[in-house]
Structures are given as structure tokens and as C-alpha cells.
Amino acid sequence: AQRVTQPEKLLSVFKGAPVELKCNYSYSGSPELFWYVQYSRQRLQLLLRHISRESIKGFTADLNKGETSFHLKKPFAQEEDSAMYYCALRFQGGSEKLVFGKGTKLTVNP
Amino acid sequence: EPEVTQTPSHQVTQMGQEVILRCVPISNHLYFYWYRQILGQKVEFLVSFYNNEISEKSEIFDDQFSVERPDGSNFTLKIRSTKLEDSAMYFCASSLDPYNEQFFGPGTRLTVL
Asked: What count of other Cβ atoms lies within 10 Å of the Cβ of residue A107?
């Protein structure tokens, strides 16, 4: 079965520290991977997707097919990065649905 | 910037009652979705809709659920006879095409008593 696992429910770092939010997936085909972010009282919004290979708000994520991971990283966390982060997967070819992980709540302390 | 909107933001209903959750997708989008998130759990796919037809649905989307695009702007999710376990946040999303970004609405919190 296709599954997305985010092992950390909560992650707390200090401002300026590096942050890594972990995401692992299980899927036999070639997935498309996404990170969505939900700031307090706001809607889910796309942060980045692996096929675009870009950096958004200082965040990057690399798809590692060998380790079936798509960890989200930022070298220097800011207080405004505090939010819920959801990793999601979409099957390439045929299905439009997103399969989400349970999310990690990131808190960046001053 | 255009956004997906959803009404109401919070709906409280009695078990067994019918509810209709409403969504207005982004105007030039053609693909529409409903997801739900039970408190403390994952966001789960319910259904996708294109060209006035369901294109994909999950096992959660049983006969109690239906979707409709009654006019050129609204996209609705109906639950015929609500159960306690239907209590969740329901998100609508839309996209220009199935390979593009899905834009999410703010959600409707459904509470079934």
C-alpha cells in the first residue's frame, strides 16, 4: 500500500538553527513528492515539489529513491517558519489523489 | 490572487441529518477534489471530479457521499445521513490540470452530535 510517514509529530528548534523534517514513503512506482505547509489559521499551501527542484523560503528537499525519502531542510530556521508541514505523494500516471503524511508541527523558538 | 473558498467555516449537525458543504473553486480550474482530516489524523482523499463526473474516489466515499457541480461556480459535497465518525475538517481543492498544483480551501469543520 502507498504510505507516507512523517516520524516526528513535533519538532522544536531555535531561531538560526538548521531544521530537517523527515518524510519517508512506500510506493513501488515513481512517485511525485510534495511538501505542503499550513501556517496558523491559514489554508494548506504548496511549499515545494520534487520535480521543480527549487528552493522556496530557504527550504529544499531532495528525493532519495534509494532510501525512499524526501526530507525537508532549511539551514537557518526563522520564527515565521513555525507551522504544520505535510509531506504528500502522488502516483505518476493515472491518479490525481494526494496521499498525505500525518504532519510535523515545527516550532521555531526565539 | 484567486483562492478556493468554502462555506460554512463550521457546521454542527445531528446524527442522521443531511449536510451540504459548499466550495467555490478557482474560476479557470477544471479539476476538483474533496479531502477530509479527522482530528489528529492524516488528510485523506475522498473524491476527484472532472467534466461533471467522478474520476476517482476512495473507499471512504461510500453511498452516503455525493458530489455535484450545480452551476458554473459551486462544487458541493453532500453527506446524506451523517454519522458521528463523519466529524472532521473537510477541504476542497482545485487544479488547472491533474498534473499541476492543487489549491486548497480553508476547510469546513463538520461536527456531528
From this structure: 14
Size of interface A-B (CB pairs under 8 A): 46
Using one digit for the tens of pLDDT, what is the confidence trace for A16-57? 999 999 999 998 777 899 999 999 989 999 999 988 878 889
Q: Who's near A98: CB < 8 A, 6+ residues apart? A: A34, A88, A89, A90, B35, B43, B45, B102
Search chain A and give the residue with CA nearest B107: A43
β partners of residue B50: B31, B53
* C-alpha span between A33 and A46 (Å, rounded): 11
Helices and strands in chain A, H and E counts: 0, 11
Q: Which of A43, A44, A102 is closest, CB to CB, to B41? A: A102
**What is the pLDDT at residue A25?**
94
Question: Cis peptide before B8, with omega less than 30 degrees from 0?
Answer: yes
- Cβ contacts of A95 within 8 Å, gap of 6 or more: B56
Q: Does A13 touch chain B (CB under 8 A)?
A: no
Residues present in chain A in total? 110
Instruction: Give the angle subtended at the CA of B106 by the CAs of B94 and A97, to the nearest 5°.
Output: 40
Distance from CA of A67 to the nearest CA of B (A): 22
Tell me what pLDDT residue A83 has.
97
CB atoms within 10 A of CB B84: 9
- Mean pLDDT for chain A? 92
